[in-house]
User: What shape does this take?
Amino acid sequence: MEPISFRTPLALLPISLMAIAGVWWWLATPITLARAPIDPQAKLLCVSYAPFRGAQTPLDPSTYVPAAQIEQDLAQLAKISECVRTYSIENGLDQVPAIAGKAGLKVMQGIWLGSDHARNFAQISTAIRLTKENPGVITSLVVGNEVLLRGEMTTTDLVAIIRAVKAQVSVPVTYADVWEYWLRYREIYEVVDFITIHILPYWEDVPIRAKYAAAHVDAIRQRMAVTFPGKEILIGETGWPSEGRMREGALPSRTNQARVVSEILALAKQEDFRVNLIEAYDQPWKRRLEGTVGGYWGLYDSVHRALKYPPGEHVSNFPLWKWQIGAGIALSVVVFVSAWLTTRRRPWTPRLSSWIAVGLIATSSGILLGIAADKIYYESYGIGGWVQWGALLAAALVASVLGANAVVSGRSLPTFLDLFAPRGEGARLAPSMYCLGAALVTTVLIGSETALGFVFDPRYRDFPFASLTMAVVPFACLLLNRPQNGPRPIAEAAFAGLLAISAVYVGCNEGRDNWQSLWSCAVYLLLAFTLWRARGVQSPK
Assistant: This one.
């Protein structure tokens, strides 16, 4: 029996390592674009600018951005753009025009309008003053941003405000909103000097895939030009997120962001229309409103203020892939070693199926570890987010190592009753099995919470497919050692039903083009099946 207990893992380990290396080679393959997203020889026409860094947020009225911080940003942006678009004069943003003038930048000055009349008056009066104080710097005023979309103002009031502003300034005045709202409220067209439309293919009611995004932007622009002849159409916001959850077939990623931005700019140059990209810097505070995806629309990252796509460099979704593949290979080796060490202390020889299960655990965990770590870094927001996703990844690592140990040693999946029953009523578990049981509880609770979240409030939630798969596969493999007799635990059965029903609903709701959703739902179903098949009799320790 020695060939099975010793040579089998030696044969499976190289296969696992080659699979991990092959998948990561494929994942990290960079793309080459016909046109660089940022061309040092041709500056951008304009880019949306918000100066907030770290914990700074305009949602806190006390936030005030110092002039030195804005000076750093605008000096950097002046190297790639001719203009910046702002949205407000609060939180220190009233300093932007004067600083922009010194940096050689023009400004599309925004006036934020809402339901607060006193705040609206302050915004309008300050913007008018800044326009007069900075002639030649502020080239236009954007009176209101998506205030009709938010339902915070009537069309009549907005028209009156635009007329009042136009009477006091000499620069062109416009209003900005998503393109559908210009079609719905055509009376705004009559009072503006040019039309500013937002076209965000990712956020469309029917999301657009990245490869069709530029064509979609151009088609909408042409439609608007026919509908509103005689006035220029400015695309006031367009772009693509680099991180976040899929919406149907629309996938946020570094390569997709680079591709979409590059193709839109190429079209703008070819067809001679103006574009303002959203946005200059990633804005972490937007994640509070829009989830992970809201914080990653920038050309520069928010932490290092580094350009995401330096000219002349290839674009990869995983620039740290060497570290990620190394961590995955190391984890695969640890899983195999953990299983093999078990055979040194056991009087029986593991079955071939057990070693195949170990290979499956090691390979899936090795491949997904780097993806899971990447998702934790970008998707964890606030202490709660770091605790939740960190706990799930920790549970996945414990499940991978101790799950392989349990598969080879003949132990079955621990039940909730084994962990929480009063002393003397449940089965006695070895310490390693208590740890494995704790990982199971963590996985089930977080898995159930996320599944219910996708049922009741899905729009801004991220799919935890990587960490969840790492955790669930080892638990499913333990079904190989499932006791043939014994009662079905009530808690496991209840969670199994919840996960199965949620998975079916979420899969239908998110659509067949969303592979993140389909993957997550498949893992929910696998976890549900594992819990349903669990039995309350513990195998020998």
